[in-house]
Structure formats: C-alpha cells, structure tokens
Amino acid sequence: MAQGFRERSFFARNPHVLIFLACLGVFTLAATLMSEAMGTGALSTSFTKILGQTLCLCLVAIAMDLVWGFCGILSLGHFAFFGLGGYMIGMWLMYERTRLIVEPSLAGAALPPTPQEISDAIAGQIFGVVGTSELPLVWSFAGSLPIQLALVVLVPGLLALVFGWLAFRSRVTGVYLSILTQAMTLALALYLFQNESGLRGNNGLSGLQNIPHAGGVSQAWISLWFLWGSALALALGYLLAAWIVSGKFGSVIRGIRDDETRVRFLGYPVEVYKLFVFTLTAVIAGIAGALYYPQAGIINPAELAPIASIYLAVWVAIGGRGRIWGAVLGAAAVSLVSNWFTGGGAPDIRLPGYTISWVNWWQVLLGLGFVLITIFAPKGLAGLVDLITQRRVPDRHGADAGPDQSALREAEEGR
Amino acid sequence: MTILMRRLLALVLVCAATMAPAQESADIQSILQENRALIEASSRRTIGPAIDALRESGLDRAPEVMRRWQERELYLREADGVFVFGEETDDGLRVIDIATGEVIGEGPDDGYEEMRPNAGIRGLIQAAMVQFRLQDENAAQRARALDAVARSPEPEHLDLLRTVILDEPDPALRARMERLERLLTVQFGQSDAERVAAIEGFRGDIAREVRAALTPVLATRRTVAPEDAPAEGNVARELEPGTDALPEAEAYQMLVSAGLAPERIDREARRAALVANIEDGEVGGIPVAELDDQEMRDRAYATLAQAGAVPPTTLEEDRADLMGGYAFRDIHIEPSAEVTDAAAATMESIELTLRLHQWLDLGLDALSLASIYFLAAIGLAITFGVMGVINMAHGEFIMLGAFTGWLVQLVVPNYTISIVVALPLAFVVAFAAGVALERLVIRHLYHRPLETLLATFGISIAIQQIVKNVFGSQAKPLTAPDWLAGSWVVNDIVSISFIRIAIFGLALVFLGLLLFILNRTRLGLEVRAVTQNPRMAASMGINPDRINMLTFGLGSGIAGIAGVAIGLFAQVTSELGQNYIVQSFMTVVVGGVGNIWGTLAGATLIGLLQKGIESANPSNTLAAQTYMILFVILFIQFRPRGIVALRGRAAEA
User: Fold this and answer.
1) Residue A45 lies in a domain
2) Which candidate from A114, A317, A371 shows the least CB-CB separation from B293?
3) What is the pLDDT of residues A320-365, one digit of tens each?
4) Total CB pairs under 8 A between chain A and B
5) Which among A190, A371, A406 has the least Cβ separation from residue B441?
6) What total number of domains does chain A contain?
C-alpha cells in the first residue's frame, strides 16, 4: 500500500494541478490571440491589463489560501505585503524612467553632469510634489533593477518573518492574531501616508505603466507581456502551493489548522511551521504585487489599507478555502464581477420611484452575498464542484470530520 | 465727594511731578497758540512738545482738546488765528469754543482750516490721552485704558501708573494696575534693584503677559570678536561653531559679513565659474567631457585659481582654523547683568511651571481621548470580550447612532432637546440592528469565530454602502447645544472643551451602568453564566439564545450612544465607524478580553500613549498613530492576554 502510494506521481495524486495549468494555458492563449497587440482587437488593451491584474490577484489569493485555508492563520496583512512588493518595483520604475528623462536634459548643459547632480535632479522630479528634493535613504538602491527585484522578495519576507516571529512566539492565535495583523497593516498604511516615509506620502508612486527602456513598445504589447508574466507566476505559484500542501508538510500545517495544541504535543515545532508558511506567503504576495502595480499604473498607501486585506480573505472564502483552485476561482470571479458591476457593465434596475444603479449597490450585494455564502455555503464556489463529485466522498453518516466543520479534510483534497 | 477730591489732588500731583510750573495758570487757548507752529506743521517728528504741553497743562479742557484733535475736529479760524472745535454738518461747520464748549456759530466752512493730524500723530495723541483715561470717572473706561497700556507699554506709563494707583477706588482694577505696574517696572524701572525685585516677583507666573515682558529684557544680539579681545557688554553666552545653536555655516557667514573672512564659494558658484572659463573645450587643462565628477571639477577649479582666473576656495580646515580664532557671543541688549540674570532665573522657573501645566493639559487631552476610545470600545468589550464574537460591523453601529442623532436634529430644532431624544433613540436603533444581526447571522456562526469576523465584515460594507446610497456621501452636521460649545479655561495653558467633559462624564456613566448590569442584575448574572458555560446555564433554566441576543443588543446599543457623542465633534459620514473600529479592537485586546475594567485600562493606555507621542512630535498625528500601533503590537508580545488578564477557568472559555 505504502509502496503504491509512493509510486504515484505528484500529478497523479493531484489531478487538479494539470487541469488548472491546462485551463490557464488555454486562457492565456485565447487572451493573447484576441488582444489588440495581435491585431484582432477583441480585447482592448485596458481589458487585457485587467485580465493580467486578475491573474496577480489570483496569485495573492493562493498565498492567502495557503496561510488561512491550510494553516488556519487568518492574516489581515497579506495585501500589505502585496502593496510592499508593488512599492519596491515601483521605486525602480519611477527612478529609472525619471533618470532617462533627466539625463538627456542635463547632458545639454555646459558641463557634463556629476552623479550627484543627476541624483539631485531625479529627486527634484520625483519628490517635487511632497516639497523635498533630496533622495531619501530608502531610495538608495532604486537605480538598480536587480537589487529592487531582490527587495520585492526581501522586504515583505523580512517584515513577515519579524512580525510572525513576534506573534507566533507569544502564541497569539485565532482572532487575536487577525486583529494584530490588521493593526500591522494599519500601521504600515499610516506610515506610508506620511511624506516623511520617503515614498511620496499619499501621492504614492505613479506612471508605473511606462516601462523604462521600452519606449518603442506599445502599451498593447506591454500589457501582453505582463499578462504572460502574470500567468507564468500564477502557474509557478500554483505548482509550488500544490506541492507544499500535498506532502507531509501539508499534513502538518493542516493539522495545525485543525488542532494546534495536538500537533504541538506530537512534537512538531508548530511556530516554525507557521512562521515558514507566513513568510513564504508574504513573499508570494510581494511578487504578485510587483507584477500587479506596473499594470495598474499607480500605487498609493490607500491600497494597503486593512480593508483590502479583508477583501482578500473574502475572495478566498467565496472561492472556497482549503483548496488552491478555490482561491483562484474566488479571486477571479469576485474581481471580474466587481469590475463588471462598478464599471457600469450591469444594467440598472428601474423600480417605481427608485433606480438601482449597480455602481452604488454592488457593494451591498457583495456584502450580503458574502454573508449568505459564509452561513450557507462555507465551502464557497468550490462546493459547487463537490455536488458533482459528491458520490466519491465517503459517507460519514453525518459525523464531523474534524473540529472545524467548515474545513473537511477529504473534501479539500478533492477525493 | 472724597473721591473727587482725591482725583483732583492726584491730578495736581501728576502735574507737579512732570510739568513746568509756569504753565499752571495758562488757559488752553494760549497753550495751543504757543505751539501753533508745531500743530500746523503737523509732523510726527516735531509734534512732541506740543502734545507734552497739552498733557502737562493739567487743564480740564486738555483731554477734550486732544480727543477732538485726534478726531480731526480741531480747526483754526483763519481770520484771527484762534483754535476752535468744528463739527461737520450737512451745510458746513458747527463751530464750538474750545474753552467753554459752547456753540459759537454755524455756517459754511470757508475761513476755517482743519488740523489734519496724520496716523503717526494720532498715535502719539492717543498715548498721551491714556493719562486722562486712566483717571476717568467711569471704571469701564479705566479698564479699557489699562488694556491699552498693557498692549503697548511705553516708559512714561510707569510713572503715570504709580501715581494713579494711589487713588484707584476699585480693588479689582487696583490689583490689575499694581500688576501692570510691576510688569512695566520689569522693562522700564529706574534702578536695577527695583527691576530685579519686580522680575523676581514673577517667579512661576505662567501668564502670557509676563513672558511678553521678560522676553525683551532677555533679547540678545550675536557678535563676533577676536578670541583674545575681552568680552564687551553683558554676555549671555559663548557660542561654539558647529553646535545646534550656531551651525558652522552660519558662524562662517557671520565672519564673512563682518569682513573677517573671504566669501565662501559653494559648489554652484564653482560650477558657474568653470562654465565661464571654458576655453577650446577645456577648463584649466582638463577637457570638458571629463568634468563629470566632482573631483575632476575641483581639480579644474584649483588650476584656475592658481592661474588667478577665479578666487581660491577655502578649505574645510582653513575655515575651521579661521573660526577658531574668533569668539562668538550672544550679548544682552540690556546692559545690567543683574537684571538679565534675574530675568533668566525667573524665565526658567516660569518654563518649569509652564511645562507642568502643559503636562496637565496633555493629561486632560489624553483623558478625553481615552474616554472617546472607551465609549467606542465598551460595546465591543461586551460583544467581543464577554461573548467572544468578533463584530466588524461594530463601527457601523457607531455610525448608525451618529446618523440617528443627525436625523433627530432635522425633526427637533432645539439642540438640547434633540440630544436628549437622540441618545435613547440611538440606543434603540443600534440595539435593534444588533439583535437583528445576532439573530440572522451570528447565531449560525458561534463555533466559527474567524468566519464571524468575515460575515460581519460583509454586513459592515453593506450597511456602509446602504447609508451612503440613501443619505449621500457628504458630511452631515450634528451640532452640539450652545451650553456645550465653550471650554473650561483654567489659565493660559490649561483648558478643556465642555464637549470633552461631557463625553468623559458619559463614559463614566456607562462604566458604572455596565458594571451594575453585569454584576448586580439578574440579566448580568445570566450573561456571565452563559459566557462561562452555556450548557450548564441552559440546564439551570436560562435560555442561552435569549441571553446572547440581549447581550449583543446591549453592546450594539451602547455603540449607538457612543455614535451620538462622537458625532458631536467628528464628521458624520458613512465612514465614521471605520475610523474607530481598529482602535476599538486594539483597546479591547490591550485591556484584556472579557473585562470592563480591562477595557478602561486599555482605553486609558491608548489615549495616554497617542497624546504623549503626539506631544513629542506635534506636527504629525499620522506618525503618532503609527508608533502607537507598533507599541500595541509589541505590548501584546509581553502581555498576550492584555493588561487585565482573566485567570483560571474563565480564561479557558
């Protein structure tokens, strides 16, 4: 039996990985063929960007699902890591683009510019809006793409590591941990709102859609590049997440979710496991953010507000937590439907005396719909799939599968 | 009668003290005539003697003349050169005799020349008139004159005050005069001993006027002199270049302005000089293309300087050496060291008292902030602390309360009555909303706390958006009644607005009320029973469903009342609750879950912290909040269960 278990390949044990990768491939191919860059124009450039952004949101939803759905940590701070990743890449984008504008103009001067003069001129351009013209310390490496790319990973990772170490060490769990992560997110957002933070205060970083050294490339093609990049990142992220949760490690973190104390008594270093998952997911979130914000074009501290992280949890819950593809489904569905409603795509409902305009009422629908899903369909949209595959699930005659009724283990493995 | 006598006597004394006795018998017209040339010239520089003559004449009519002169009602009859008063009428001028005040004619204003004192002269006249006004029979008039003196004190006022104090009948006014006299003595006293005594009398007095009087005494000017030369004047302090008080650049600039050092040539200027000296694509023998770093530029400039094309730069060390040869001092403008020492000592004691009072004021501020947090969080302390339910819609209950207050004000125009109506109504509205939420949503999720968080978040965004859709997004006015409008002012530093006192009172009332309900009533007993062990409570005949519902309603209702209170000073918008929700949760968590006293402690700690950090860095509330949250995160590390942690069995629940 054990022999046979080992011989089955990773993909055979997790058929959803191949199905997902195939779907993602088909989607990317279709979006590419229909994009403006290919000349068909069925999808506008801006919509291509929205699709690319949605893929990034799916990636961060996978991170959220790992940390919440599998490890039981309801983190209300993962969108802050997402934003931090965006800030890190945004710094390079903005610095480099400004440098490319500033340098030729300085080259026209009587003397060739010194490095100091170039840096001062760039700082003057970037920080004019907040009334300073000195390059803050945090921008020291903004001129170097490799370092900023490393920071995309390092900054969210280190923050998560330090915060997680503090929180898990003192055994803050459950809702307390949620409130604490929310406080961290709020502190970070408030810090970034200050001009003194050196990241342009509430102006944020803008013009990120203009990729330096790609002046000749049209936005249509850039949007396509990012769509491919996001799809690749999502595929890799999905593989990584599926691989992590499929092995013994996955069993341990699920055990932590279902009964932390019991796992601890079995001799597992629970804090280390939690810290690893928390930090890893923060890094994934950072990467997703770094891909998202060049497509969005602008990032400001409001993006990091605690409410964004709660929305992230909402997507995962709607999609169905404890299943990686559920998180992807939730994020994609909610953000696309939300785009459709808030973008004025949904027709208004005319009642006698009042017109329901969905731009205003969509949030109400989302909020109430979310409440209904939480109460009546704790497995989310992924539960719909269970209706089809129900027959293969062993019938427990109504008995609980574990302490947390909303997270049945056999269900989430899709058996 | 005696008052009148004394006043006359004082008048005579004033005159005797200050004027030439020969004018005593002169009448007002002749005094004006004597100074006619000056008055007609009407120049600020030369008018002095004329005003003095009037002021010192001691004549009854002098004040009237000065008043009319100042108001441009003094005329010169061109026919005989006699001064008269004139009042402009519709068809010319009403002419009045200056000695008797009788109307002596009316008609066209030909032949009368108006004296036109300019603004400067009017100011001088006004200052001179202070004397008369200080002796006015009307006490209010005298008080106003005192105000004027306090606003712009002049050296002459001192003697004046000292004389009029003696016969001031009103004790309050007299006390003010004496205080003002001491304040004036500080600045204008004749002898140093007298001034020192006055200065030392003000130790620890934090009134603004005292500081205003002491500041000019302590005024300094900055001097630079060769180090070996003896210090001149009353030295306040020696300054070392390169310190905070005297940055190096500033010190060097002082040397430059004194002509003691060559002008410093900064980078920009050197760059301009380089540009000006480009010859055949090179500067000082270095090709222009190579001048893209500072070192090469410095070398090029040095070459130019050697060739004498540009002034040489000064090196850092040279500048330091040069500055080392000079002593930089702050010299008191006041020559007497005794006076300045006393003033500095007094100022120091004042600063100390001032700081104490500022701490007191800060404490009051912190207390009022704490009571706001307490009000916002106490409802949460019940639902989260006692029941263990995370209610993210708690902020929306606060917002509903504030909107209820605003709606009531639309119907009931009287602000006092509307607040009285709004408080219970807000409770009812929020109570109903809370009960509905508990029945419809939370009841299903008691075993899934994390999902309660998310479900109530869904409710929260739905309520917020509904309110925004119905009432619009602009801020609604929720006005406090007039009797809450002012503030309670203790002194120049310590004050607190009545609204904050009222909120503090409200917080106290709720603290007492909740403690009473939870500890002394049947409902409280049942709530505690259900909290500790719902099954056991149920078997004792308590209906847990009903109790959960009532508890949740109570917590929500209190949030509604807090909403009315918060709405009185905050912007009533659909996002009102959001601003308080995270702070409220932190208050409860820091304080310790499941305990009203813990919430009180948490609110106090967070209020104190936030105000304390704000006062350390007053320009930035955002930074204060950031640091406060960081502190809370760290605090949780050391006391994960909050300040007041439950022990034993209750902690397990």
Assistant:
1) yes
2) A114
3) 888 899 999 999 999 899 888 887 777 777 877 777 788 888 889 8
4) 154
5) A371
6) 1
Name the token pair of A11.
């993909």
DSSP-assigned letter for residue B25: G
- Show the DSSP H helices in A297-405 as ranges: 306-319, 324-342, 358-376, 382-389
Q: Where are the beta strands (DSSP E) in B52-132?
A: 74-77, 82-89, 92-97, 103-107, 112-114
Contact A196 B466 (CB under 8 A): no
Give start and end residues of each alpha helix (H) in B207-293. 208-217, 248-257, 267-276
CATH second-level architecture of B354-652?
Orthogonal Bundle (1.10)
What pLDDT, in 10s, does the model give residues B626-643? Answer: 888 888 888 887 887 778
Question: Is residue B91 pLDDT above 80, yes or no?
Answer: no
Question: pLDDT digits over B404-424, tens only?
Answer: 999 999 998 888 899 899 999
Structure tokens at B618: 């007053």
Cα–Cα distance for residue pair B379/B394, rounded to 1 Å: 8
Are the beta carbons of B513 and B495 closer than 8 angstroms? no
* Tokens 């199905």 -> residue: A19
Contacts of B449 in chain A (CB under 8 A): 174-175
From chain A, the residues in CB contact with B445 under 8 A are 374-375
State the average pLDDT for chain B. Answer: 81
**Most B CBs within 10 Å: which of A76, A79, A181, A190, as the mutation test of the B interface?**
A190
Inspect the interface and report whether the beta carbons of A314 and B447 lie closer than 8 Å: no
HSE of B119, CA atoms in CB hemisphere, 13 A:
0
Determine, yes or no, domain membership for A389.
no
Q: What single DSSP character describes residue A66?
A: I
Nearest to B54 by CA among B78, B83, B76: B83
CA distance B479 to B568: 6
Residues in A touching B448 (Cβ below 8 Å): 378, 404-406
What is the Cα–Cα distance from A404 to A398, expressed in whole angstroms? 14
Q: With respect to residue A399, please indicate whether it lies within any of the assigned structural domains.
A: no
Q: What is the separation of C-alpha B593 from the centre of its chain, rounded to a whole number of angstroms?
A: 39
Tens digit of each residue's pLDDT (9 = 90 or more) over B158-208:
877 887 888 788 888 888 888 888 888 888 888 888 888 888 888 888 888
Helical axes B394-411 vs B415-440, angle rounded to 10°: 140
User: What length does chain A have?
Assistant: 415
Using the beta-carbon criterion (under 8 Å), do A360 and B469 form an inter-chain contact? yes
Could you tell me which residues come within 8 angstroms of residue B469 by beta carbon, excluding any fewer than 6 positions away?
A360, A361, A364
Set of chain B residues whose Cβ sits within 8 Å of the Cβ of A370 = 454-455, 457-458
Establish if A349 touches chain B: CB-CB under 8 angstroms.
no
Are the beta carbons of A410 and A393 closer than 8 angstroms? yes
Least confident of A99-108, A185-194, A199-208, B28-37: B28-37
Q: Which amino acid is at A355?
A: T
Contact criterion met (CB < 8 Å) for A174 and B450? yes
Minimal CA separation from A41 to chain B, in Å: 36
Range of the domain at A47: 19-305
Distance from CA of B275 to the nearest CA of A (A): 6
> What contacts B385, CB < 8 A, 6 or more positions away?
B588, B593, B594, B595, B596, B598, B599
Domain ranges of chain B: 2-123, 135-217, 220-260+320-333, 265-313, 354-652
From chain B, the residues in CB contact with A405 under 8 A are 447-448
The radius of gyration of chain B's CA atoms, rounded to the nearest angstrom, is 38
Q: CA nearest A175 in B: which residue?
A: B450
CA A314 to CA B457: how far, in whole Å? 9
Residue A139 resides in a domain:
yes
- Asked whether the beta carbons of residue B620 and residue A406 sit closer than 8 angstroms, the reply is no
Q: Nearest CB to B633: which of A115, A184, A361? A: A184
Rounded to 10 degrees, the C-alpha dihedral A160/A161/A166/A171 comes to: 90
